[in-house]
Write a structure and sequence with these properties.
The chain is α/β, with parallel strands linked by helices. Helices cover 35% and strands 21% of the residues. It has a seven-stranded mixed sheet with strand order 3-4-2-5-1-6-7, sandwiched between helices.
Length: 307
């Protein structure tokens, strides 16, 4: 039932049918109220300076937009770096250091899937999960970080930071619950909007390919993978951050008589311990130098203020 509801909501937000359009229109008064409350929330916040370079990468809408591979690509360009995120879908609560600058310190059930991706893909970074980003920033400073990347923190208006927003195109630009947008790019709020194909591009590497592969994935809006997929026996979509069991994956292999399961890295970190045959659709992004130049100018300006 949860899976059906999640996919219905994704369709409602991004590719609505006639009935869903009617529902969206009927909820407009609530959307106006929600958006006004979020604006008041933004106006009530005063950014706190933590004395460290902080860069947030996010988007205004719910659902996936490519934040994780973009943060990964940016963080790989710096030393003494920390990545902080909420850790959505994890079984733990509170602050956890998923990885110090050398070792992974917990398993994926504690960290959540996205944090474990960072732990694997940015080997020199400190990775922290914390619902309270301010606590995470203080912990990162304690561990020696000089630059912090916040995953999905545009709405943290009480933190002084450089905001990058990934542009998400949608025919429905309304706020929740009529549309997918959590906030607007508020007047007076400085942010740099990044466009796929202009500021960064996606690249895909298919690893451990087999003759017969069944796609299994638990990412938001899985149809985004279609442009990168090789031929597969079947497509098996689960709700975002789904906690797989070995039995359900083994059943797909048996049903399809497949040689392997084709997964993204977000899925891989959750299922590698099952020791099932896996092929990996490894997505990453290549970032234009101008984006790094924006970060470097921001850091130089912060350094000049300290002097």
């Amino acid at each position: 039932m949860k899976k059906v509801f999640v996919f219905w909501v994704e369709e409602y937000f991004y590719n609505p049918n006639l009935f869903q359009k009617i529902v969206s229109f009927s909820l407009l008064p609530l959307s106006y109220l929600y958006c006004f409350i979020m604006y008041l929330r933004f106006k009530s916040k005063t950014p706190q300076d933590f004395g460290i370079d902080i860069i947030s990468v996010g988007n205004l809408s719910v659902g996936g937009s490519g934040k994780t591979p973009l943060v990964t690509a940016l963080a790989c360009g710096y030393e003494n770096v920390a990545i902080i995120l909420r850790g959505y879908g994890r079984e733990s609560r509170g602050l956890y250091v998923v990885k110090n600058s050398e070792n992974i310190l917990c398993d994926v059930s504690v960290s959540g899937d996205e944090a474990m991706i960072y732990a694997h893909k940015v080997p020199h970074a400190v990775v922290i999960v914390s619902e309270d980003r301010k606590e995470g920033i203080l912990k990162a400073k304690e561990l020696g970080a000089k630059i912090v990347f916040l995953d999905d923190a545009y709405s943290k208006h009480d933190i002084k930071k450089l905001d990058f927003l990934i542009e998400v195109r949608s025919e429905n630009s309304r706020c929740l619950p009529s549309g997918a947008f959590r906030e607007r790019l508020w007047s007076g709020k400085k942010a740099v909007v990044l466009q796929e194909g202009i500021d960064f591009t996606r690249a895909v590497e298919l690893k451990n390919k087999s003759d017969k592969m069944s796609l299994v994935t638990a990412i938001a809006r899985p149809s985004r993978l279609d442009a990168f997929l090789p031929e597969v026996v079947s497509k098996n979509y689960f709700e975002d951050h789904h906690a797989f069991t070995k039995e359900e994956l083994a059943a797909i292999l048996e049903r399809d008589s497949s040689d392997s399961l084709l997964v993204t890295y977000k899925d891989f970190v959750k299922v590698e311990s099952f020791h099932l045959p896996l092929s990996l659709l490894d997505l990453h992004v290549e970032v234009e130098q101008k984006v790094f130049d924006i970060i470097n100018r921001y850091r130089e300006a912060n350094s000049a203020k300290k002097d």
